[in-house]
Structures are given as structure tokens and as C-alpha cells.
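step=predict obj=Copper chaperone PCu(A)C n=186
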Amino acid sequence: MQCRQAGRTPRRPFPALAGLSVLLLAAACGGAPGPAPATAPAGGAETDRGGASGGALDVAGAWIPEPANPEVGVVYLEVANAAGEDDAVTGVSTSASDDADLCATENGASARMRTVDEIPVPAGGSVTLADGGYHLMINDIAEPLAVGDRVTVTLTFASATELEFTVPVQTMTGAPGPEAGHGGHH
């Protein structure tokens, strides 16, 4: 499942697979946008994850669960803001694809993903990008990602800070809870 903004036309080479992905996403996603616990990857310690610091901002724990769908992937991470003013993630780019989005999962009558213009990072606080909440989607991946691959991610912030870091692709564990079944759209 891809997060898309109005006016963008997604490539859908396998309509039946896309329909199945929508059903799996609706059944598996949950929670409101915002902080949520991330599922730990199997065999990869937190120290094996990507991150960067710049100014008052710190990105840590960045990882990509091995995608079930080779055309899309998701990035999970945490952003901390030590500044006295709120900030926000306003853009994302990756080495895996020219098409990446800031997204949020909304929980209502049925869970759905939508693109967002920004992801708030509160002053003196942090935001966790995780399954069931805010996350980064990588769309139209040309070369399938496999465990052990590394992707360069650049985040742009409202404060004009830009942070570039390398993110490992890791195996996702089947932890109990709402995170367990969300891998169907990754």
C-alpha cells in the first residue's frame, strides 16, 4: 500500500495484488498517528540501526523492515528535539527511490494510511515513527530491498535542518500486538 498525495498516479502492475494489499492493510493497521512502539527487528540490536544529529535534532533507531512487497518499503525511527521550540519533519528523500512520503495511519471505521505535510516534533520531546502511527513510505522501489541492504535517507525539517543517515534493512519479528500483522504493505 502506498501513501499518495492528490494528483499523483500510482503504478499498479498487479491490480489483484494491490487490492489484496489494501485488505491486508485495513485488517492489520491500528492506532492513531503519533508515538507508537516500534517492533524490534530479529537479530539486529538497536546499535545496528541508523541515525544522525544536527543542531537540536537527533534521529536514532532508524531501520527498514524487510519489505513483503518489493515495490514499497517503510522506515521506522525516532526523532528527538532538544530545542525550546517545536519543529517538524517536512520532507524525506531516499537512495532507494525518488518517491518517498511522510505518512500516518488513521484508525476509524477502518484503518487507512494517508500522506501528511509534516510530522510534528515537540520542543524538548520526541516522536517515534512506527507501525500504526507516523512513518516514512518508500514507493516505487526499483531494486528489491533485502536484509543487510542499506538505504541513505535524508530528512528535511521546518527549522531548515537537513539530516542524512544510512538505514539498514532488517528482519521484522512477529511480536504480539497491533504491530505484528502490519508487514503486509511493506
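step=describe
The mean pLDDT is 78.
step=end
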